[in-house]
Structure formats: structure tokens, C-alpha cells
């Protein structure tokens, strides 16, 4: 007799009614409902009513864990045991930002230290850039390999950064689509289950999460960012994947560039060890330390830093990136001859400030939207992207700008587009006379409690 014969799942409307009235939902009811979403037995109207009930009434930690594991298990969950990998399977996720190329450096760097990183990344949407769009600046790079190929590359190279394919967390695709059009995106239980449902389907031993705070952050306030970081660390850990969440500053672009090809150029410089103390490198290093500790590749922070430093200075991290590009269809000599492969924009101009002074503040979201308008991002999922456009050499808070020192260099398709982006950038940067310092880059660390 099947184990669930004694238990008839509640009708979807009954489950919705319970949550509408603020009642707790049993884990097995959540699981049955999510499975019904994946099987198309539950309608969009019912998903919308459910997400609105959760949005308004919240969920207990146990309910979020149940929603997360049900989302994870709604499709294929990757298994790595058969590959007998000699190290832990770890990954990172970020809530997204501007000039945030962390994944491109982090994946290869951690792999060079003995971890295995099956990184399933997204495209840019809204003001945030997408890791996949950046990688697609590299001619021939195929972000959608067959599943066997993906496993092979992870095994032979230590890292593969690809797009979400096939049957990973299919329930999330439907829930997310409905949340988008029913004003239920900003619910911490729903965001937690959405992010983790997808990530944990990769069969991870450990996860690190980069939650942004500031004017370019996904969450509207620092309190909400903290709440999300805590929720993700605790829910994932309770769901069986030890997770640490870092709260990091996104009150200005993280790297001194924003776009696709321009960020690949910066990635190569970072991997060659040319920008050891830049802000993007500080965040990447901190996440890498957490990954090595969580993956039990090192005993402590000091050991992690030593190992990471060696992987960078020896060229091992750069070599892993080069191998990943080659294995996924990109040029074999990309590291050496990247200039001849990356697209360059027809119009490249310096953007000078209207007055001289010190950079006080950024509207980081506006900078991201300006890159989108240049053609470097998308407002709709199916839009195509111009890899050559964006900004490089972006100033930082506290920098002095004048007629000699521009705010950035704009890379654009046409003179008109360059002029428009220049105006948008000037409007996004506040300049004053006072000395200015940025917010603390690494703000808090939340280690999940099971």
C-alpha cells in the first residue's frame, strides 16, 4: 500500500484558505501543492491567491523550509556521487547588482583550491547584470551544454558556469511568473524558497549567499536585506545545505565597470592578480573564504587566505577560467588574446562632470538602467543584448572629479546613445565639496543554524 494512501492532500482552495486566515500549513500539504504546480494541476489563479496569502500573512521558518524543499524536489535534483569527486560541491548566489562580476572570478578561484562549482546562473533583468550575458561576450561560449557535458566539465575543470536548463525546480518557474504579475515579488518567504529551490537542486554540499544592501540592492531597505540574508542562511541550512550569507554594500557599482565585454576585461585582470585590493576583489575573497571553510577544504580563515593567495599568484585560478571557456566552446587562446575576441563599441568617450568636486553618492540602480538603455541589458526576458556597450573606469565614492578626471568612459552604439548615457550618469552621481567615504563593504555575516 502506498505510504500516502491514508493521507488525502487538501484541495488547493483549502490550503489557500488556511494561509489566507493566517493558519499554519503542514509540510506535506505544502509539498503536495508545489507538486501540483509543477504538474500543472494547480491554476495560475490559485498560485496567485497562494502567493498573495503568503505575502500578507508570512510563513514560519518550518513552512519556508517545506516550501523550499518542495520547490527543490519539484524536478530534477542533481546527483554527483557517481562522479567520485575528490572535493566538496559548493556554489554561491547573489541577489544581483551593478558591476558585480564576482561569480566569474569566484568560481574558477575556488575550483583552483580543490572545490567543485556547478554554477547555474541567470541573465540580467531589470537594473542588474547577468553572469550569462557577460560570458556570452566570449565568442562560442555555450551556456546550455547537455547535462552529461555539464557534469564532465565540472569534473575535469572544477567549475562550469551555465544557464538554467531542463527540469531544475520547474515549480519555481511558474510561481515566479505569477509573482511578477501579481505584486507578490517582495515577500521574504517566497524569495527565499525561489532562490534556494533552484540553487539546492544543484546537489550542493555548501552554499554562500551574497545579499546586497544600498542603492543598487534588490531589497528596498537595509532591514529587508538583513532579514533576507538571515532567512536564506537558516532555511538552507535547515534544509540540509550548510549556508552562510554575507551582507555586502551595493551603494555604488562594485567593479569600476558595468556592461558585458567590459566586465570580462576586468575579470581577466582580477584573475591575473592585477587588482588585489579592489572592492570587487575584497567581496570575492570573503565569499571564497566562506566557501572553502564550508566545504571543509581548510580549517580556518588564515588557511583559506593562504590557499586563495597561492591559487591567484601561481596563475592557477586564471588557468581554470581559461579551461572552462575552452571546454564550453570558447577560444582556446582567450586569456592571451581576449582583445581580438571581445566586441568593442563604435563610440567610446569620456564622461566629464558638470562641476569639479568629490563623488558623494551614486544612484546605483540608475547606472544599471543606463547600461540597459545602451543595449547592455534587457527589460524583457526575450530581448537580445549588445555585449560591447557599458561603462568602464567608473569613479568611486570619495574620488575627486574634474575636467581632467572623468566620471567614467561610456561605450555606446551611436553618438546619441553615448550622449544620453552620459547625461544619465551625471544625474546618477552626486558631487560635492565634502570628503566622502563609502559604506562599509562587508557588513555582516550570517551563518545558518539548523
From TrEMBL:
Enzyme class per UniProt: transferase
InterPro entries: Glycosyl_Trfase_fam3, Glycosyl_Trfase_fam3_N_dom, Glycosyl_Trfase_fam3_N_dom_sf, Nuc_phospho_transferase, PYNP-like_C_sf, PYNP_C, Pyrmidine_PPas_bac/euk, Pyrmidine_PPase_CS
Gene3D superfamilies the record matches: Nucleoside phosphorylase/phosphoribosyltransferase catalytic domain, Pyrimidine nucleoside phosphorylase-like, C-terminal domain, Transferase, Pyrimidine Nucleoside Phosphorylase, Chain C
Purpose: The enzymes which catalyze the reversible phosphorolysis of pyrimidine nucleosides are involved in the degradation of these compounds and in their utilization as carbon and energy sources, or in the rescue of pyrimidine bases for nucleotide synthesis.
Residue runs in coiled coils: none
Domain annotation Pyrimidine nucleoside phosphorylase C-terminal: ranges: 358-432
PROSITE patterns according to UniProt: THYMID_PHOSPHORYLASE
Pathway: Pyrimidine metabolism; dTMP biosynthesis via salvage pathway; dTMP from thymine: step 1/2
Protein source organism: Vreelandella lutescens
Reactions catalysed: thymidine + phosphate = 2-deoxy-alpha-D-ribose 1-phosphate + thymine
Listed name of the protein: Thymidine phosphorylase
Organism domain of life: Bacteria
Oligomeric and partner information: Homodimer.
E.C. numbers: 2.4.2.4
Keywords: Glycosyltransferase, Transferase
Similarity annotation: Belongs to the thymidine/pyrimidine-nucleoside phosphorylase family.
Amino acid at each position: 500500500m502506498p505510504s500516502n494512501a491514508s493521507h488525502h492532500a487538501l484541495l488547493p482552495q483549502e490550503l489557500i484558505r488556511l494561509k489566507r486566515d493566517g493558519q499554519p500549513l503542514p509540510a506535506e500539504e505544502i509539498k503536495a501543492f508545489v507538486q501540483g504546480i509543477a504538474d500543472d494541476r494547480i491554476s495560475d489563479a490559485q498560485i496567485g491567491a497562494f502567493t498573495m496569502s503568503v505575502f500578507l500573512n508570512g510563513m514560519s521558518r518550518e513552512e519556508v523550509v517545506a516550501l523550499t524543499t518542495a520547490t527543490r524536489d519539484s524536478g530534477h535534483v542533481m546527483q554527483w556521487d557517481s562522479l567520485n569527486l575528490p572535493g566538496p560541491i559548493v556554489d554561491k548566489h547573489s541577489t544581483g547588482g551593478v558591476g558585480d562580476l564576482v561569480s566569474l572570478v569566484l568560481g574558477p578561484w575556488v575550483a583552483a583550491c580543490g572545490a567543485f562549482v556547478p554554477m547555474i546562473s541567470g541573465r540580467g533583468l531589470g537594473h542588474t547584470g547577468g553572469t550569462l550575458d557577460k560570458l556570452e561576450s566570449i565568442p562560442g561560449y555555450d551556456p546550455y551544454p547537455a547535462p552529461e557535458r555539464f557534469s564532465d566539465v565540472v569534473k575535469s575543470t572544477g567549475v562550469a558556469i551555465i544557464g538554467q536548463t531542463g527540469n531544475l525546480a520547474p515549480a519555481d518557474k511558474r510561481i515566479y511568473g505569477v509573482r511578477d504579475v501579481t505584486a507578490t515579488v517582495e515577500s521574504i518567504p517566497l524569495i527565499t524558497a525561489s532562490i534556494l529551490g533552484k540553487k539546492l537542486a544543484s546537489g550542493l554540499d555548501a552554499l554562500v549567499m551574497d545579499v546586497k544592501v544600498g542603492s543598487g540592492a534588490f531589497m528596498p531597505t537595509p532591514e529587508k536585506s538583513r532579514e533576507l540574508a538571515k532567512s536564506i542562511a537558516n532555511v538552507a541550512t535547515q534544509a540540509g545545505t550548510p549556508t552562510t550569507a554575507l551582507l555586502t554594500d551595493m551603494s555604488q557599482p562594485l567593479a569600476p565597470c558595468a556592461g558585458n565585454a567590459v566586465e570580462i576585461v576586468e575579470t581577466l585582470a582580477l584573475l591575473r592578480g592585477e587588482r588585489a585590493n579592489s572592492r570587487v576583489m575584497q567581496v570575492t575573497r570573503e565569499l571564497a573564504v566562506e566557501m572553502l571553510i564550508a566545504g571543509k577544504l581548510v580549517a580556518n580563515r588564515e588557511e583559506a587566505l593562504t590557499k586563495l593567495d597561492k591559487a591567484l599568484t601561481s596563475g592557477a585560478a586564471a588557468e581554470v577560467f581559461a579551461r572552462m571557456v575552452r571546454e564550453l566552446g570558447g577560444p582556446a587562446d582567450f586569456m592571451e588574446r581576449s582583445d581580438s575576441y571581445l566586441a568593442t563599441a563604435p563610440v567610446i568617450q569620456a564622461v566629464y562632470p558638470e562641476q569639479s568636486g568629490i563623488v558623494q553618492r551614486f544612484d546605483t540602480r540608475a547606472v544599471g538602467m543606463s547600461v540597459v538603455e545602451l543595449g547592455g541589458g534587457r527589460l524583457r526576458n526575450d530581448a537580445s543584448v549588445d555585449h560591447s556597450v557599458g561603462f568602464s573606469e567608473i569613479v568611486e565614492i570619495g574620488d575627486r572629479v574634474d575636467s581632467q578626471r572623468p566620471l567614467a568612459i561610456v561605450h555606446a552604439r551611436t553618438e546619441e546613445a553615448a550622449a544620453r548615457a552620459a547625461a544619465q550618469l551625471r544625474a546618477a552621481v552626486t558631487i560635492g565639496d565634502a570628503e566622502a567615504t563609502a559604506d562599509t563593504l562587508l557588513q555582516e555575516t550570517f551563518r545558518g543554524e539548523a
